Amino acid sequence: MLLRQEGWRMGDSKGVSREDIPGIEDIKPAALQVLESGRSRSLASFESETAKRLGLTSAQRAFCVTGSSSALFSNRFEKARSELHRNGMIEYPARGKVRLGDRGQASAKSELETEPDQAPEAGMRVPEGGAAAEPSDESPAMRDKPDAGATSQQATGECGSGSYEGGITSLPSIERSEPKTDSIIALVLAAVGLALSFTGVLSLVGALCGAVSLGFFVHDRRKKPSSSGMTAPKATLALGICSVVLGVMVALGGAASGGVHNEAQQPSSSSVQQEPKTVEAPEEHELDFVVQSDEELAPASVTVIVSGTQTDGVKVSERHEAAIGKTYTLACSPGRYSFEIDASSLAVGEVLLKADRVECSFDGLKDRTVSIKIVQDAEAMQARAAQEEAERQKAEEEAAAAAAAATAEQEAAAAAEREAAAAAAASAADDRGGDTVYLTKTGEKYHRDGCSSLRKSKIPTTRSEAEARGYEPCKNCRP
Question: What pTM value is reported for the model?
Answer without folding.
Answer: 0.29
